[in-house]
Specification:
This is Helix-turn-helix transcriptional regulator. About 45% of the residues lie in helices and about 15% in strands. The radius of gyration is 24 Å and the shape is elongated. By secondary structure, the protein is of the alpha+beta class.
Length: about 270
């Protein structure tokens, strides 16, 4: 029997879910890996016969409710979930909230970078995590200051040395980034509140927001004026985590340079 892409995907994802992952006992011998068809159907709240017909390509046009129940039960990540909707001929629903969770794999990577200033931001540019060296370099940020856009449009102090031109470019980048985020998460209340406040209190932000400015993250070199180590020149790279919609900001110094020595000094101060 000819199966559809939807049927093949459902069978593949069903085989990848261990019974214990969904609260089912995993004891006993199973002829096939993963969940049985009847188990997936029961957990998703649909009939086993309907799931059989979906997998065999004998049922078409499943409802969004059915697809969402299957995606939830199969524990699909955001890209897989969107692909399931596409296979079913449905538009993927717009997420209500910006992801603000750091996955274990990303956290393991961060734990290996203790000798490098690293911070993680969500899609609305709010700091979620900063390692000890990043905090020592930039200072600890609390409240509204944890959001990079709020800080650069409404904040008062920063250790990063800026010229009017470099600050203007940074602001353009951040407004463009927030506009793209608003397109992906139009219903996130925290993002709406941030944009509303910045438009109300910052004429510069309001001007850029209305102008439709376009910009992309690029690697750059920054000078940080540290109260103990003095001026430190570092390369700044922003990495994006696919699927989680996170930005990882990493500062590095040229090996063997005086800036690298100053970073080492900051590590000893932090320790």
């Amino acid at each position: 029997m000819a199966r559809t892409g939807l049927g093949e995907a459902l069978m593949t994802w069903r085989a990848a879910v261990a019974p214990g992952d969904v609260g089912l006992p995993g004891n006993g011998t199973r002829r096939t890996p993963g969940l049985r068809r009847e188990e997936l159907a029961q957990l998703a709240g649909i009939s086993a016969d309907y799931l059989t017909r979906l997998e065999q390509g004998r049922a078409a046009n499943p409802s969004p409710q059915v697809i969402e129940a299957l995606a939830r039960t199969l524990q699909l990540a955001t890209p897989e979930r969107s692909h399931l909707y596409q296979l079913a001929g449905l538009a993927s629903p717009v997420p209500d909230r910006i992801p603000r969770t750091i996955s274990p794999s990303v956290q393991r990577m961060l734990d290996r970078l203790n000798d490098t200033p690293v911070a993680v931001f969500d899609a609305m540019l709010t700091e979620l995590h900063a390692n000890a060296l990043y905090v020592e370099l930039m200072g600890e940020r609390t409240g509204h200051e944890r959001n990079a856009a709020w800080r650069n449009f409404l904040g008062s102090t920063s250790r990063v040395r800026q010229t009017p031109a470099s600050l203007g470019q940074l602001q353009e980048l951040q407004v463009a980034d927030l506009r793209r985020t608003a397109g992906r998460y139009p219903n996130d209340p925290n993002l709406q509140a941030l944009v509303d406040e910045l438009r109300r209190r910052s004429p510069r932000f309001a001007e850029l927001w209305e102008s439709g400015v376009v910009a992309e993250h690029q690697a750059g070199r920054k000078i940080i004026d540290h109260p103990v180590a003095g001026a430190i020149t570092l390369d700044c790279d922003v990495l994006q985590v696919a699927g989680d919609d996170l930005r990882i900001m990493i500062y590095t110094a040229e090996p063997g340079s005086s800036d690298a020595e100053k970073l080492a000094l900051l590590m000893s101060v932090g320790a």
